[in-house]
Write a structure and sequence with these properties.
13 strands, Rossmann fold, about 400 residues, five-stranded parallel β-sheet
Length: about 400
């Protein structure tokens, strides 16, 4: 039986359409939450980190950690396992975009309505005022557009070329939309064949290779065909041959791989520095200090050591960023205007105890040191600090985080 994937706009009554299809068929619903949970189990990543891949706002640390790209790789693998195990699935939500386009027994459906119809549904079903509903729809559409571009490369998430059926729910009606989907399940073009089964196996192997490469800090596009792997490097690279050699060595060791080819993506022929992620080094460091020149210079010096960091200049900004993002290590000054470092440390450890905090101060006393260590600081260092000492302390904090993880 065919697989159905349903992508939709917020307040487009997709839930009602999906329910009618499920009631009339033997399909099992696969939600974003289930795919995220499976990806978390496979990868060891936190579900919250994987879920953030659906958001248009990437982590400020993502250019160093490649967390979003790693999350997408594991989401693809989770989806590939689902498709390998069963056919009669209905995948609804962001995860509907994950299935490889070459799998012919997957029917891709998009459910959408015009803005006025969506605002009306938001008001009738949820009681939202028009202004609030419009804001929610705009944010959700923004997230979906960013997600579709990240997964498929398409600029328009509602483009007809992405789907087998694009159904305007408001004008077509919930019942008729469901009926049209059910009718198409009998289309011979959607029957499971040996070729479509092979496409699932290819998708599974490609997804496996992608996660292996992601685990080594690489982010490249992977395609598979009967054991043959094609890697596309969509980055400007300074030492291309060396990178290709490293990628081939990694991928050749994956079970099921019979050959590896590499190519450079269109428009990526300039020479530049290619950075892979080194997971032995911290990549999500938050620097908190009101001395702007000092902290910016410190960030640059850490980057030269392949340690990624973000910078804020006061305690309140650090706490705000912590609410929206997930720094792993914080380098924190004590004496700052507004909320001081000790209070920031206290709040961090009370709400996010997994964040390791390194105090770096030029004004602290022995009493301050005792208080900070009692509150759970990882280390207490004085300015000016030897960059090698700080780097080693960061590595030890990162080791502790990885061990706890």
């Amino acid at each position: 039986m065919s697989v159905i994937t349903v992508f939709n706009g917020l307040f487009s009554e997709a839930g009602l359409v999906v329910k009618r299809v499920l009631d009339a068929t033997e399909h099992r619903l696969i939600t974003d939450q289930e795919i995220v949970a499976d990806a978390a189990k496979l990868s060891g990543m936190a579900e919250s980190a994987i879920t953030r891949a659906f958001s248009s706002g990437a982590s400020v640390f993502n250019k160093f950690s490649h967390e979003k790209e790693r999350a997408i790789a594991w989401l693809r693998l989770a989806m590939a396992h689902k498709l390998e195990d069963a056919d009669n699935l209905l995948v609804s939500g962001f995860a509907s975009q994950l299935a490889d386009r070459k799998i012919s027994h997957v029917m891709r459906v998009c459910l959408i309505s015009d803005m006025q119809a969506r605002l009306a549904v938001a008001e009738k079903q949820e009681g939202y005022a028009e202004k609030h509903a419009h804001k929610l729809i705009h944010k959700d559409d923004e997230d979906r557009a960013a997600w579709v571009k990240a997964v498929t490369g398409a600029e328009d998430p509602w483009a007809e070329s992405l789907y087998d059926m694009v159904l305007p729910v408001a004008s077509t009606g919930v019942e008729r939309c469901a009926d049209l989907i059910i009718e198409q399940l009998g289309n011979k073009a959607l029957e499971t064949t040996d070729a479509s089964r092979q496409a699932v196996r290819d998708f599974l192997l490609a997804a496996t290779v992608e996660t292996v490469l992601a685990g080594e800090g690489h982010n490249v596009t992977v395609r598979a065909h009967k054991g043959e792997i094609t890697l596309t490097i969509n980055k400007h690279v300074l030492m291309l041959e060396r990178l290709e050699r490293e990628l081939k060595e990694i991928v050749s060791g994956v079970d099921g791989v019979t050959g590896v080819n590499t190519q450079v993506g269109k428009g990526f022929h300039q020479t530049d520095i290619y950075r892979k992620v080194d997971f032995a080094l911290p990549s999500k460091v938050l620097l908190v200090d009101d001395e702007r020149e000092f902290v910016q210079t410190l960030s640059e010096r850490l980057l030269l050591r392949d340690m990624g960091s973000a910078v804020v200049y006061d305690g309140e900004s650090a706490l705000d960023l912590m609410e929206d993002d997930e720094p792993e290590v914080m380098i924190l000054d004590l004496k700052m205007p507004g909320i001081d470092g000790i209070e920031v440390l206290r709040r961090v450890k009370s709400t996010r105890p997994g964040i390791e905090v390194i105090i770096l101060t030029g004004h602290g006393s022995e009493k301050d040191r005792e208080v900070c260590m009692e509150l759970g600081a990882f280390a207490y260092l004085h300015k000016p600090v030897d960059i090698d000492v700080l780097s080693e302390t960061l590595k030890k904090a990162n080791e502790k985080i990885n061990q706890n993880r």
